[in-house]
Amino acid sequence: MALCGAVCTLLLASLGYATGQLLGRDSVCTAWPPARYSLTFTGKWSQTAFPKQYPLFRPPAQWSSLLGAAHSSDYTMWRRNEYASNGLREFVERGEAWALMKEVEAAGEKLQSVHAVFSAPAVPSGTGQTALELEVHPRHTLVSFVVRIVPSPDWFVGVDSLDLCEGSRWKEQVALDLYPHDAGTDSGFTFSSPNFATIPQDTVTEITSSSPSHPANSFYYPRLKSLPPMARVTLVRLQQSTRAFVPPAPDLASRSNEITDSLSVPETPLDCEVSLWSSWGLCRGPCGKLGTKVRTRYIRMQPANNGTPCPALEEETECVPDNCV
Predict the structure, then answer these.
(1) Residue 285 and residue 267: Cα distance in Å, rounded?
(2) What's the pLDDT tens digit per position in 37-79?
(3) How far apart are CA 62 and CA 65, in angstroms?
(4) pLDDT tens, 150-164?
(5) Strands 231-237 and 173-178: what pairing?
(6) 3-state SS string over the chain?
């Protein structure tokens, strides 16, 4: 996992308090003064909720560092049905933050559209929490972030341009369920798929229980109308301090986080999956009488959470012996 270190500190110095004239036509926010929020990211990626191909080792299910920005409508970190930038691709495929940070820096310098960048440390399990504090400004009321799903080809969760201002006031609290997205840059179907670049590149799409509609896909649950939330983000406005807010420098590794193993998660039923039947075996039996032949199949995936049990793996039928004895 790439680390920001001093680079992010420098970016904050150049982006943290940009207040020049915006080029875009933002919705008018007259709230004042700027507002501070705590942001808590809670992973809900458990084996109970997502039993299919759940990663247990090399590496086990986990979340990357959270990387985000407070910005105006002139900047987009990611958006559904649009193409991922090179920086986003590097982050969601390999966890390398440098290119994405440079894109944020360029947006801040050219368009003055970024007020601050922020990050939270990685969560080393599928269920856990990480948190940070951030500041939004009347000219930069939108919050976007991404968190990579590890392991995965190019899958992530995140928020795109969440507006924390309502006219003349800041929202006190916002909570959103997060669902997996495909960046459209890698064609892998499973969490542990090898690199297989998507050519030509596709747009960012939400992954659902039926799309991609391929049984090999790690999120394919045809019995479900929709996937359970994979994560949740909660933003709570903090009381105004008389001291000037200095955004913490993004540090993607050093800060501690809280592991939460007791999160309430739904049980997603996983049905048994079996192979196709083999060819029929030889018909065996005595001459002048009916014999029997057998075909078999094997279990591709064991059922879980009260899913449909496995059917019979062997079938027998009568036949006329080819070579009777």
Answers:
(1) 48
(2) 999 999 999 999 999 999 999 899 999 999 999 999 999 999 9
(3) 10
(4) 999 999 999 999 999
(5) antiparallel
(6) CCCCCHHHHHHHHHHCCCCCCCCCCCCCCCCCCCEEEEEEEEEECCCCCCCCCCCCCCCCCEEEEEEEEEECCCCCCCCCCCECCHHHHHHHHHCCCHHHHHHHHHHHHHHCCEEEEEEECCECCCEEEEEEEEEEECCECEEEEEEEEECCCCEEEEEEEEECEECCEECCEEEEEECCEECCCECCCCCCCCCCECCCCCECEECCCCCCCCCCCCCCCCCCCCCCCCEEEEEEECCCCCCCCCCCCCCCCCCCCECCCCCCCCCCCECCEECCCCCCCCCECCCCCCEEEEEECCEEECCECCCCCCCCCEEEEEECCCCCC
Q: What's at 102, amino acid-wise?
A: K
What token pair was written down for 201? 């590149």
Query: Is the pTM of the predicted complex or chain greater than 0.85?
Result: no
The pair of three-digit structure tokens given for residue 274, joined into one six-digit string:
């079996």
> Residue 224's CB: how many other CB atoms inside 10 A?
15
CA distance 272 to 311: 8
Task: For residue 289, give every residue at least 6 positions away whose Cβ sits within 8 Å of its Cβ, in sequence order, or none.
Answer: 321
d(CA 66, CA 68): 7
Strands 205-206 and 181-182: antiparallel
Amino acid 254 reads: S
pLDDT mean over 102-108: 90
Which pLDDT score, from 0 to 100, does residue 261 have? 44
Cis peptide before 151 (omega within 30 of 0): yes
Residue found by looking up tokens 């500041």 in the block: 135
Instruction: Round to whole Å and give the CA distance between 296 and 275.
Output: 9
Two tokens, residue 124:
């080393």
- Look-up: residue for tokens 């929490």? 129
Backbone angles phi, psi at 7, to 5 degrees: -60, -45
Q: How far apart are CA 7 and CA 101, in angstroms?
A: 9
